[in-house]
Predict the structure.
Amino acid sequence: MPNNVMKTWLASSHLSGANSTYIEDLYESYLEDPISVDANWRNVFDELPKVSDQPEEAHSVIREQMKYAAKAPKCFTPPTGAVHNDAKQVKVLQLIGAYRNRGHEVAALDPLGLAKTETITELDPFYHELEGADLDASFNVGSYAASNETMVLRDLVASLKRTYCGSLGAEYMHITNTDEKRWLQNRIESCESKPSFSEEAKHRFLEELTAAEGLERYIGSKFPGAKRFSLEGGDSFVLMLKELIRRAGEQGAQEVVLGMAHRGRLNVLVNVLGKKPTDLFNEFAGKHSAHEGSSDVKYHQGFSSDFKTPKGNVHLSLAFNPSHLEIVNPVVLGSVRARQERLNGIGESVLPITVHGDSAIAGQGVVQETFNMSQARAFKVSGTVRIVINNQIGFTTSNPEDTRSTRNCTDIAKMVQAPIFHVNGDDPEAVILATQIALDFRNTFKRDVVIDLVCYRRHGHNEADEPNATQPVMYQKIKKHETTREQYATQLEDEGVIAKGYGKQLVSDYRDALDNGECVVKEWQSMQHQSVDWTPYLKHDWNTPYEAQFSRDRLGELGEVISHYPEDHAQHSRVKKIYNDRELMARGEKLCDWGFAENLAYATLLDAKYNIRLVGQDSGRGTFFHRHAVLHEQTEGRTYLPLQNISDDQGHFDVYDSVLSECAVLAFEYGYSTAAPKGLCIWEAQFGDFANGAQVVFDQFLSSGEQKWGRMCGLTVMLPHGYEGQGPEHSSARLERYLQLCAEHNMQVCIPSTPAQVYHMLRRQVVRAMRRPLIVMSPKSLLRHPLAVSSLEELANGTFQNAIDEIDTLDNSAVDRVVLCSGKVYYELLAKRRSEELNNVAIVRIEQLYPFPTNELGDILEQYCNAKDVVWCQEEPQNQGAWYCSQHHFRGVLPNNAKLHYAGRDASASTAVGYISLHIKQQKALVNDALGLEE
C-alpha cells in the first residue's frame, strides 16, 4: 500500500489520531516479518485494501528514498543498484527482520556443541526468493546499523550471521517499544556482536578466569567430596559480575545488592566480594567462631565489602538466603528499594543483580511474581539485571524438556518485554559485551534485562553426586572439554596478547595467593561505612524502656489534621461520614474507633519523623473499609492522603495497593525492612489465610533470619483473623503456624482487641529500640464493634498491655472460674456473661501470645485465688489456634489448685465450617462451654 493511501485509510479509521504512530511502527514490523506482530494485528493488516499487485514497499525504503531526494538536486537519480525499489528490496528487509527475530535460535551458544539446533528456513535468502545474481547486488539495508545505507547481499548475510548467530544471540523483537528496539539494534549491529577490547582488558579477563577456575580446583583438592556447588563450567560468571560492578560504578552506582542461590556462591564470596580464603577454608574444616544463633551452611551466607571502581568505591552486599530457589530475588529488590529511597532517588544509585538457575527461573512461581512487580509503583527499582547460570540441565538430572514447556528457560522474561541476551559461556569477550549492553539498557530505560549465560556443570549437582549415571553423553563430552580459561589463554597466545606460558604462571600465582589466605580481589576495599546502620537496635530485649505516652494536646491536633481534606475533594458519602466522625473523635466528642486510632498511631510516628510504608491488597482503603488513608475524589479520581500532609518536615508516608501476590510481596517487604530499620514497614494480607502462599518467607526469613544469619528485621505483618461465618478460607489466619515458629524470642505474635491496643502496639514497634518481626492477628468485625472503642486519654496516656484483666467490677474472692481468651471471642463472652449475670466468672484477655506475658498474666491470676477452673477459650478448632502451642504457658501461671480446661471447636481438618447456621451453633456452644453454661 503506498504511504499516502495508508495515511488516508488511517485517517478514516478508529486507528487514527494519537494511535497512528504506534500503528505505523506495527505495520513496519509487519512488512519486515508478518509473524513478528500479534495475530490479531496480522489479520487487520492482511485485510487492508490492495491498490496494486506489486508487493508492498517497506516504509523504511520510502524514507531512504526521501533522504536521497532531500540531499540531492532535482535532477538527482539514485545510483544504479544502490536501492532496488522493487519486490527484491522488500525481501531483503524481510531477511534482516528474520535474523533479528530468530537469529538467536541458531546462535553458537552451547559450549559443548550438544544442543540440537533447528534449521530456520526464514534465515536462508532462498526462502525470500533471493538467489543467484541477487547475492552480488546492492540493496538498501534500512535501519540495519552495521552499514550506513547499502550493502551487497552476500556481505549482508555474512554480517547478519556474525551479528545474530555467533556467541551472542540477542532476543528482543518481542519488545513493542520502538525506541528500545532501535537502541538495542544499534548497539548490537554496529559492532556485529564482536567487541574490541584493549590488551589490558584481555589480561584482566584472563586473570579473573584463572581465579574462578583456580578456587574451585583448590577446594576440590583440599576438601575432596565436600559440597561446594562448584561454578566450574560457568567460570565466566565471575567476569560478568565484576564487569557489572565496575561499569555500574562508572555510571554512578553507589551500591550493588546481589541475590543468588548456592551454585558458584563460594566463588563469588572469595573472587568478587573479597572474603578471605582462610575464613572459607576454616568453615570447610569445621572451625567456627562463637555465635549466639544456629548459623547456616557456608553456601547460604551473605557478605558485604567495598569494591574500587574508576569513579569511586561501590558497596557490595550479597544477600543471605536459604536453599529455597529464587525466593531471595524479591528480598533483594526490597532491600534495593529501601536503599534507593535512602539515597533520595530510585535509579542508578543502587543496582540489583539477581542470579537464577535455568530450571529454577522457568519453574518457580515467585519468578513470575517478581517480574510482574518490576514496573509496579510500590516495587519498581529502575530495572534489575537478571543473570541465568544456564547449565542446560535441571536440578539434578533433568533434561530441559522435562523442566519447562518453552523453548528457552528465559521466556518468562518476555512477559515484561525484557531483552534477553543468550551468550556462550566459553567466549569471555562475548560475555563482557552482553554484560555491558545489558547494564546500559537497564540504566537507559529503567527496565529489567536478562543475560542467559549458557554453560555447563563440570560436576554433578554437588560434588558427591555422580552425573554419568543419568547424563553419560554430556559428561563424556565435558570430561574431554577444555576449560574456559584454557581456551582463552590459547586464544590470547595466538593473538600475541600474552607470551606462551604466561597463563600457567597466572595459575601458579593464584594458588600461592590462596595458600597465603588473604584477600585475592584487587579491587577490594575496607568498608568506609555501614550501608545500613543497625547499631542503635543491637543488644536490646523486650524490656527495653521506651516512651509510650504522647501529648494529649498534640494528639488532638494531629487527629484534626488527618481528619481534614480539601474542600474541592468530593468524597463518597460513606467516606465523608467516616471523616466527619473522625473530627468528633479528634475533639474528644466521640470515642475512637479502630480506623481512627490506627491512623493516629501513624500520624504520631510521622510527626516524630519516622517513615512509614504500608503495602497490601486494598491497603489504601482497608480491606474491610476502615482505614481510608487514601481519599479518592469522586468526580475526577484525584487522590489525597491526609497522612502525607501533616507538616513540611514530617516522615515519609507511603501506602500502596499491591499486586495480587503474597509470596513475592512479603519477601520484598522483608528485604525492605532489613534495609530500613528506623521506620515502620507493614505488609497486610487481604485475609489472614492468604499468607499461606508466602509461608516460605515466614519459615526461612522472618522466623529464623536472625538466628541463622544475624539479620534483624522489624517487619509488621497484619493478618485479618476471626470467625465470622465466612467459611474455611476466610476465617483463620492460621495462628498456630506462627506460634509453632516462635522460639528464642525471635518474633512477636499479638491479637489486639481495642483501638488503644492497636495504637500502642504500632507505636511500640517503632519507638522501642527492639527490631523483631511482629505478627498481628488483626480484626474484621471488631473494626466497627460498638464496644471496641477507646478514649483519646487511653491513647495518650496508656501503653500496650500484653494481658488485660477483667473490666467489670467483680468480687474477686467470689470468682471460681477464669476464662482466658484472645481476639473477637472476648466480646461474645463478655456479652453473654453480662446477660446471664455471671458474677463468678472473670474474663482475661491475652493480647500478646508470644513472647508469652508470664509475669503480667501471673499477677492478674493471683487476684483470683479461689478460682478452681481456668478455661482457655478459642474460636479455632482444638488442633489449631493457640491451644496446642501455648497450653504449657497457661499451665505455668495457674493459681494453686486450679485446673486448665479447653473450650472451643472440636479438632477439624478444615479451619471452619461452610454453613452459617452450623457456625452460629458452634460459636454459641463454645461460649456457653467457656462460661460453664448448659446448652
The first strand starts at residue 138 and ends at 140. The chain has 32 helices and 25 strands. Residues 199-222 form the longest helix (24 residues).
